[in-house]
């Protein structure tokens, strides 16, 4: 028998291998195998079994890597679709489906949870009986009885909370009063807040209508795609939880995608409080061993609910009945490396293969998803109001061009006044700026020289806390320059600002306030997101200053003020999506305010107060924004009215890169198909990154099939030499 195998190499072809007799029962489509390739041993994936081959001198498969096929038939179909749609070799697609630990056959380490073996009433009696003889064990039992809402306890936290020892806990287990439940280490990564994040609520009419529609679809066991458009605080999570419970009643599984690792712990905690089923977690913050153990747990049916970031869409859930994509508009669902898939779109296709319901949720839906509801591809469900009668926050737009305002400062007079009021009431504030560091560039006032990265065509960012300059593209860093490297002028001007400078200004304004900064600099250590968010939720800080990671999904009832520092930063991007990105960011971060009993307020600081993305966000009017933006996109033939494929050629020799781009463009024009628009070749918006010069060719068309055919023609003629690489991005979210 012959196995058709694709390898983890960027080649669009299969290879034939003989299946040895001793592996005949283990080799089937979806199996992961080791095979000889030239002078190496590579991992491969079996796509099919055949009785013959037209290739001579075949080699044998060396071994299988897992006991059973790594991928189900539906996941094999999904891999083929991704390979075809995103123009990526099938072996590279398979590689992205499986966590590194599974591919390397790494096993995860185990931790344990403590659960009561007896009723709480009986444990309370035992605590009294052993008080004198074993006071530490008694304290542990009393602690468990006083936290009846918790079903399980971390062994270390339990002993610390009861001011006891780990051995005392073990002794109670040995006596049969408590039990130890084996878990994956990653299951400990959840946030437990002092207040209940989610509780049973009386559904609004809009929630009832939407939920009925979804439940009817789940009962039908057919593919149904929905877009749930709900304003911030409208109870989308309640719809998610009830939909999952309905799915579980039918012995089916569910996948919940969240866009950021920072959202995962809070999402897990919300769901754990309401769903009495094991939950698996998949995201890049876990070790290889932890991800392997979670994957095994899912594939063995030990967890029917999966929560995670982008790659969780590939989780091997059997009998999948529901996929939820929360904050479906988020660009973090787009994979940056090949295959450059969008997990939102992959979720829809997987749901189609699985005959499942897919629910895309957002307060600011992407134009593509909203447009799909207008043409009947998706069904729109609406939640136009917040739950419990709460109102959306009032919004004030501050024109930072005013003579009263100092553009060098982070905080307008109005924002400072509102923050002072919140501090006096012991309420919390979130300040948002979508840029980290202290100053975004250094410029010499004498010769005009800007300090740029030696590897990229971008300015270096000054980080005051480290007294270093950093490139946020390639990571290159150098010591802070006290003088211009060109003319020697000792007085360099610091332009722009980021989270560090905002923190610096706010400390000077409010020296007694407790500040927390949350960006990629402060969240680099393990479990940082969990710790920082827990501390803020427990009111250890008055003011949270952060980037995009504080803009969505987080629910802090004590936050009554949100300040948006320079809202138009994203409007300056040379990208057709800049208005959409701005509107989404403003609306999402505004939604963090007023989610508790006290009405919220938002201050938007901007130099473009009349731009429709700003005014629409301030007026809480998605319709105003969508009408203007769709008109703009249609006029200029941009998505969602067309599809695009972006080719980026890069290399260290700019002349060679330019020459190759021009050759591919001319070749493509010779085979041009009607209805396809070719733009370029031209230098990319960021012309140089990591010492590589970049040129791009952009293809646009309404016909995605014709577009992919033309793109394949470019790939087939690429014949790359001289250190030039070619990247292809289907449906790009950014053209930078």
Written description of the protein model:
The protein is of the alpha/beta class. The protein has six domains: 2-103, 3-Layer(aba) Sandwich (GIY-YIG endonuclease), CATH 3.40.1440.60; 110-184; 205-388, P-loop containing nucleotide triphosphate hydrolases (Rossmann fold); 390-436 and 499-621, P-loop containing nucleotide triphosphate hydrolases (Rossmann fold, 3-Layer(aba) Sandwich); 439-496, no CATH class; 643-730, 2-Layer Sandwich (Alpha-Beta Plaits). The protein has a seven-stranded parallel sheet with strand order 11-12-10-13-14-9-15, with helices on both faces.
At a glance:
The chain folds into six domains: 2-103, PriA, 3(prime) DNA-binding domain (GIY-YIG endonuclease), CATH 3.40.1440.60; 110-184; 205-388, 3-Layer(aba) Sandwich (Rossmann fold); 390-436 and 499-621, P-loop containing nucleotide triphosphate hydrolases (Rossmann fold); 439-496, no CATH class; 643-730, Ribosomal protein S10 (Alpha-Beta Plaits), CATH 3.30.70. The protein contains 21 helices and 30 strands.
């Amino acid at each position: 028998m012959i196995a058709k195998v694709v390898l983890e190499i960027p080649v669009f072809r299969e290879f034939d291998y003989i299946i040895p007799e001793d592996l005949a029962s283990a080799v089937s489509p979806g199996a992961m195998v080791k095979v000889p390739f030239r002078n190496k041993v590579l991992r491969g994936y079996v796509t099919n079994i055949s009785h013959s081959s037209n290739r001579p001198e075949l080699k044998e498969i060396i071994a299988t890597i897992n006991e059973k096929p790594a991928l189900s038939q539906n996941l094999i179909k999904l891999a083929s679709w991704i390979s075809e749609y995103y123009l990526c070799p099938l072996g590279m697609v398979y590689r992205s489906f499986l966590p590194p630990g599974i591919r390397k056959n790494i096993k995860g380490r185990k931790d344990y949870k403590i659960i009561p073996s007896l009723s709480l009433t009986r444990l309370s009696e035992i605590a009294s009986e052993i008080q004198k003889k074993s006071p530490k064990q008694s304290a542990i039992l009393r602690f468990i009885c006083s936290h009846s809402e918790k079903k399980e306890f971390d062994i270390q936290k339990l002993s610390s909370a009861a001011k006891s020892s780990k051995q005392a806990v073990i002794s109670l287990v040995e006596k049969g009063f408590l039990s130890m439940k084996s878990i994956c280490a990653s299951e400990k990564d959840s946030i437990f807040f002092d207040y209940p994040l989610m509780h049973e609520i009386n559904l609004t009419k809009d929630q009832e209508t939407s939920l009925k529609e979804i439940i009817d679809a789940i009962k039908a066991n057919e593919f149904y795609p929905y877009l749930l458009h709900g304003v911030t605080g409208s109870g989308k999570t309640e719809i998610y939880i009830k939909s999952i419970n309905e799915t579980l009643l039918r012995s089916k599984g569910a996948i919940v995608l969240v866009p950021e690792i920072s959202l995962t712990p809070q999402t897990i905690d919300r769901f754990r409080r309401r769903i009495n089923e094991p939950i698996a977690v998949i995201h890049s913050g876990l070790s290889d061993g932890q991800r392997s153990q979670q994957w095994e747990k899912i594939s063995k049916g030990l967890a029917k609910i999966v929560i995670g970031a982008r790659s969780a869409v590939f989780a091997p859930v059997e009998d999948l009945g529901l996929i939820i994509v929360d904050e479906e508009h988020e660009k973090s669902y787009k994979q940056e490396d090949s295959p450059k898939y969008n997990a939102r779109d992959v979720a829809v296709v997987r749901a189609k293969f699985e005959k499942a319901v897919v629910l895309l949720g957002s307060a600011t839906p992407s134009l593509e998803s909203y447009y799909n509801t207008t043409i009947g591809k998706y069904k729109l469900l609406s939640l136009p109001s917040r739950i419990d009668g709460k109102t959306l926050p009032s919004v004030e737009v501050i024109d930072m061009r005013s003579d009263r305002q100092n553009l060098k400062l982070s905080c307008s007079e109005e924002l400072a006044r509102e923050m002072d009021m919140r501090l006096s009431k012991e309420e919390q504030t979130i300040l948002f700026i979508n840029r980290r560091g202290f100053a975004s560039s250094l410029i010499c006032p004498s010769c005009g020289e800007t300090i740029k990265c030696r590897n990229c065509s971008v300015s270096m960012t000054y980080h005051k806390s480290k007294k270093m300059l950093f490139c946020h593209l390639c990571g290159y860093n150098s010591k802070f320059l006290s003088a211009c490297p060109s003319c020697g002028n000792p007085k360099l001007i610091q332009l722009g600002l980021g989270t560090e400078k905002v923190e610096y200004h706010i400390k000077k304004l409010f020296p007694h306030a407790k500040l927390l900064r949350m960006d990629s600099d402060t969240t680099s250590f393990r479990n940082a997101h969990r710790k920082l968010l827990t501390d803020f939720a427990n009111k250890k800080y008055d003011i949270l200053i952060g980037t995009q990671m504080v803009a969505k999904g987080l629910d802090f009832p004590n936050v009554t003020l949100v300040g948006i520092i320079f809202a138009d930063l994203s409007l300056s991007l040379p990208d057709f999506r800049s208005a959409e990105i701005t509107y989404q960011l403003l609306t999402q971060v505004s939604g963090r305010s007023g989610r508790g009993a006290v009405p919220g307020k938002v201050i938007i600081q901007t130099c473009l107060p009349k731009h429709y993305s700003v005014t629409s966000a301030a007026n809480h009017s998605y319709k105003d924004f969508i009408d203007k933006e769709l008109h703009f996109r249609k006029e200029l033939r941009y998505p969602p009215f067309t599809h695009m494929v972006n080719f980026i050629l890069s290399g260290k020799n700019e002349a060679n890169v330019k020459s190759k781009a021009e050759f591919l463009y001319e070749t493509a024009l010779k085979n041009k198909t009607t209805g396809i628009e070719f733009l370029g070749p031209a230098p990319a918006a960021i012309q140089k990154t990591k010492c590589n010069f970049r040129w791009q060719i952009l293809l646009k068309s309404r016909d995605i099939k014709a577009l992919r055919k033309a793109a394949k023609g470019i790939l087939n003629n690429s014949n790359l030499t001289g250190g030039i690489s070619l990247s292809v991005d289907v449906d790009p979210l950014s053209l930078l």
